[in-house]
Amino acid sequence: MATARKKPASTTEQPAADAPAKPGLRILKKYPNRRLYDTQTSSYITLADVKRMVLEGVDFEVHDAKTQEDLTRSILLQIILEEETGGVPMFSTASLAQIIRFYGHAMQGVMGGLLERQMQAFADMQQRFTEQTPGSPFTPDAWTGLMGGYAEQSKTLMNQWQEQLKQAGSMFPFGTKK
Questions:
Q1: Measured between alpha carbons, how far is 175 from 178 in angstroms, rounded to an integer?
Q2: Rounded CA gap, 27 and 6, in Å?
Q3: If you average pLDDT over each of 61-65, 89-93, 142-146, which comes out highest?
């Protein structure tokens, strides 16, 4: 894992004054030279350090040092890209292509919400497993049992999503002639 380097005292590149932040929120600044600066530790950090913060559940935002634009999503996408190209990818080519097809589609917002709820349901399921079986190894049998619960939650979420679509369709009927 990369280690953070302390900011040299003689540099002309100074972090911009921090805007008031939410309590407990760590602010990272991104400079034009693509370096990331952690305002809490007063040191430069790497994407590997940011990944570690994500894994540890640290709340943070990344801001452009000059414009204060929120770059958090961009940095998280960079980490995902590195993970996808560096080892065993999580997304198949087909699933990435399908995600791209939803951009600009009328269902883009619905799909984003659906994926977010699915990810949260999966994370909740993993947490329950960890709490219910402390110290137990994660075996294929455990995975099979766990996936049964996840499949049920997924089915419930899909049914809710279909119901929302039906309600939206009755409010905005498609293809009706006047």
A1: 10
A2: 16
A3: 61-65
